[in-house]
Specification:
Elements lengths: L2 H17 L3 E5 L6 H8 L5 E6 L14 E5 L7 H14 L8 E6 L9 E6 L4 H4 L13 H17 L8 E5 L2 H6 L1 E3 L21 H7 L5 E4 L5 E8 L15 H9 L6 E5 L6 E5 L2 E6 L11
Parallel strand pairs: 1-2, 1-4, 2-3, 6-8
Antiparallel strand pairs: 4-5, 6-10, 7-9, 8-9, 10-11, 11-12
The structure holds adenosine-5'-triphosphate.
The site of adenosine-5'-triphosphate (ATP) has 16 residues, from β9 and α8.
Length: 299
């Protein structure tokens, strides 16, 4: 195990004990060997969440019952982005709760080394976990559906479509109220298809969803993953308590505002910046910036 990793882990254990962190979130993909991973997680009295982009990643055999796994979208993300997404997914899956203090260990993918320690407080991290994000999902939305939407949105934000940046807006959950405050801009391309053929959990739908991002308007997605419509113009009845930050235009405004009078969560991909913003109860609960520059895994 590299010197830096070993040193960070030693200090991380001490910090976690001193500050009363109950959860350790560890980006497992930066650790090269299973034996190293074993060494990192043995002798730890915390709840361990292993974060990985690798499909089908499993904890080492000895720790199967004590470690949870959170899957990240397989795209370049900043370290802060990795931590934000992992924490949100962990919260959606009820692996972390309001009041938890989380110690995060991360690093640059494929560097074989951890290089960053972060301590997060669920519920008081204003930027990330305000507005009840400790219980981040609407009651009718299943965690896999939210994770799938987050995945597709993150990929669209980073990769765009056929080399061009694209924007998109996904409104997930509380669909009756969302539909009542919106109308079709053009024909709904999902109309008439059986529900099992238009569920976002079906990987075959991914390309279709990305393709239709070129159409103006929002996707409305039921909590169980069925895509009810694309090209939906949102006409929310509510009003934002606070204006959105400068630079965010009508797509973000519509996404944020529909969450004021509904229980839905809105996931917005910015065409101009590639940032993915998540809104709930009229507030930005988390944004994931697209990595920039030559070091895409930088902070
Ligand atoms: N009320 C609405 N309902 C659904 N979609 C909307 C609504 N208003 C705008 N949009 C979508 O947002 C697009 C325009 O985005 P605009 O540039 O004004 O917003 P933005 O928040 O700055 O987003 P971006 O960062 O992607 O540019 C439209 O083409 C349309 O697809």
């Amino acid at each position: 195990m590299k010197l830096l990793t070993r040193s960070l882990v030693r200090h991380a254990h001490a910090i976690a004990r001193e500050v009363g962190a109950r959860v350790v979130l560890l980006h497992a993909d930066v650790v090269e060997e299973d034996a190293d991973l074993n060494a990192l997680i043995e002798d730890v009295n915390f709840r361990i969440i292993l974060v990985s982009r690798r499909c089908g990643f499993r904890p080492p055999d000895d720790y199967k019952d004590t470690c949870h796994v959170v899957q990240l979208p397989d795209i370049a993300m900043t370290r802060a982005g990795q931590v934000k997404v992992a924490t949100l997914v962990a919260a959606a899956e009820s692996l972390v709760h309001a009041g938890d203090r989380i110690l995060c260990l991360t690093g640059v993918d494929r560097s074989g080394s951890l290089d960053t320690i972060m301590v997060l407080d669920m519920g008081t991290e204003i930027e990330m976990f305000s507005a009840g994000a400790a219980d981040p999902l609407p009651p009718d939305v299943s965690p896999p559906v939210f994770e799938r939407v987050l995945n597709v949105a993150s990929e669209l934000g980073v990769e765009g479509r056929e080399g061009r940046p694209v924007g998109a807006l996904f409104v997930v959950g509380d669909c009756e109220r969302v539909l009542a405050q919106s109308h079709q801009l053009v024909f709904n391309p999902f109309h008439g298809y059986p529900e099992e053929q238009r569920n976002i959990l079906d990987p075959r739908l991914e390309e279709t969803i990305k393709e239709y991002s070129a159409i103006d308007g929002a996707y409305v997605i039921r909590g169980d993953g069925v895509v009810l419509c694309a090209a939906r113009y949102l006409a929310p009845r509510g009003k934002l308590e606070e204006p959105l930050s400068q630079g965010l235009g009508t797509r973000h405004e519509a996404g944020a505002t529909i969450t004021v009078t509904t229980e839905a969560i809105a996931v917005c991909v910015s065409q101009s910046t590639g940032t993915v913003s998540i809104f709930k109860r009229g507030r930005l609960i988390l944004d994931i910036q697209k990595p920039r520059g030559r070091n895409p895994d930088g902070l």
